[in-house]
Amino acid sequence: MFTEQAWIYKRAALSPTKTALIDSNSGEQWTYKTLTDHISKWVQHFQEKQYVKGDRIVILSQNRIELFAILFACGLKGLLYVPLNFRLSVSELKYILNDCEPVLVIHDEEHQAICSKFEKECLLISDVLEGRTEFPFSKSEWSSSDPWLIIYTGGTTGKPKGVVLSFDAVNWNAINTIVSWGLSEVDCTLNYMPMFHTGGLNALCLPILMAGGTVVTGSRFNAEVALMALNTYKTTMSLFVPTMYQAMLETDYIKRATFPTVKAFLSGGAPCPKTIYNQFEEKGILFKEGYGLTEAGPNNFFIHPQRASKKKGSVGKCMQFNEVKIINKFGELCKENEIGELYIFGKHVFTKYWNNEAETNLAKVNGWLKTGDLAMFDDDGDYYIVGRKKEMIISGGENVYPQEVEQCLVLHPNIREAAVIGLEDDKWGESVTAFITCKESIVSFEEEVIIYCKKSLGSYKVPKKIFILQELPRTDVGKIDKKRLQQLAFNEKKSEIC
C-alpha cells in the first residue's frame, strides 16, 4: 500500500500527532493520524460498494476538510475524484454528469436538494462516517500514470472540458512546489479557493500536506474574517485572487494589523494590478504573483517576494522540475523581451481532456502544453505573463495587449478595477474597449480617462470607448468574466441600432 499512491499514510507515520487540517468554520481539527482514519472509512465504503478502478466519484460541496479524505480514498482505490462547481445551474451540472458518468455523487447538506434532481446515486458526506472501523485494504492495480482527478474548466469560451490529472501530475506538482518554494512542516496555509478548482487543491493544499504542514479551510470568503484567520492560525503562505486582495485592502483590519508569521502573500488566478503590489509594499507586507492553469500544476514558476517587489508583475523563473519556452508566430523560440505563446513541459502536465481527443491534440504538442497565454522574459531570465492569446486585440494592424491597458487604467486614482476587450470595428478591425468601476461618481469621467491614458499609452492602445459599471462580472473563481463583458457591449450596440 505504501507507494506514491499512498504518500499521505507515510506522512501520517512520520507526523501522526501533527495537525494536518483545520476547518475555520467549525473549528474542527484533524491530526495526520485522524486524517488517515477518515480516509480508511471512505476506502471501506468504496470497497463495500464494489466500485472498480476507473469509476468516477463526483463531489458537490462547499470547502470542508472531509473532502481531503475522499480525495485520498479515491486515489487508494483507483477511482477518479471529480469535484464540481456548486455554483453552476442544474442544467450545467447535468451536462458534466452526462460527460463523466459517475457511479456516485457525494454532497454536503447544502446541495442535497440539487442532487435529488440527478438520476444518479447520491450520498450525504456525513452519512458514510458513522460506525466505521479499521479494516484490511484490498490492493488495486496501480500505475503512476493512472488518472486521479478530473477537474472541469470554467467553460468561459465554450463547454467545460474535463482535465484529467494523473498521480504523476498531482504528485510532481507537489514535489516541485515543495523543492522550489522551500515548503516544510512549519508551513500553514489558509485556503478560501474553491476545492473544485485546481488552485483550491493543488496550488498549496496538497504540497503543504505532503510536506507535513497544516491546511486551514474556509468556505465563504469574507475579507476581514480571512485576514484575522491568517494571524489566528499563524499562517505562512496563502493564495488569494486579485479581487480578494482588493477587498482585503479596503478593510479596517489590514490598516492596523501586522502578519508576523506570513512569508508572503501569493496572488494567482488572474493578472494582478500593480496598485495591489504598491499598497502591500506601502504596508511593508511581502507580496508576489504566481502563474498556472488546470492543465499544468497549477504551479510553474517561482520568484522570491523581495525580488517580486522590484520586478512587479514578474512570476520569476520556472520551477526546478519543469521546463518552459516561448514560441513566436513563426514557430521559433522567442528572444529576450519578445512576446509569444508560453509552452510548458513536465510530469505535472495533464494527461488529456476527458472524452475530447480533438481538444487534447490541439493543446499538447510532443508532450508540451500550449497554454494559450502570451509571455516574455527579460534579460535576467525572469518571465512575465502578458495576457491570453485569444484576448489580444489587433487594432489598425497593431497588437494591443489588454493587460497593459488595464495596468495603466487602474493607476488612475478614481479607478477601482478595469477590464479591456476588443470589439469588432469597421474602421479598425477591433476597437480597444474598457470597462471600469469607480471609487467616486464623476460627470464626464470617460473623457478624463481617455486623456489620462494618452499620457502613458500609444494612441492605438487608448480605449475608443469606456463603460462605467457598478461591478465587473466575475467567474466562480473570481476572475473577470470577459465573455459577459462582450455580451454587455453587444447588447448596448444592439439597443443603439434599434
TrEMBL record:
Domain named AMP-dependent synthetase/ligase is located at 10-354
> What InterPro entries would the database entry show?
AMP-bd_C, AMP-bd_C_sf, AMP-binding_CS, AMP-dep_synth/lig_dom, ANL_N_sf
The alphabetical list of record keywords is: Ligase
According to the entry, every stretch annotated as the AMP-binding enzyme C-terminal domain falls at 404-479
What Pfam families does the record point to?
AMP-binding, AMP-binding_C
Is the keyword Nucleotide-binding assigned to this protein? no
Q: At the top level of its lineage, which domain of life is listed?
A: Bacteria
Coiled-coil parts of chain = none
Q: What PROSITE patterns does the database record attribute to this sequence?
A: AMP_BINDING
Annotated family: Belongs to the ATP-dependent AMP-binding enzyme family.
Report what the protein is called: AMP-binding protein
User: Source taxonomy lineage?
Assistant: Bacteria, Bacillati, Bacillota, Bacilli, Bacillales
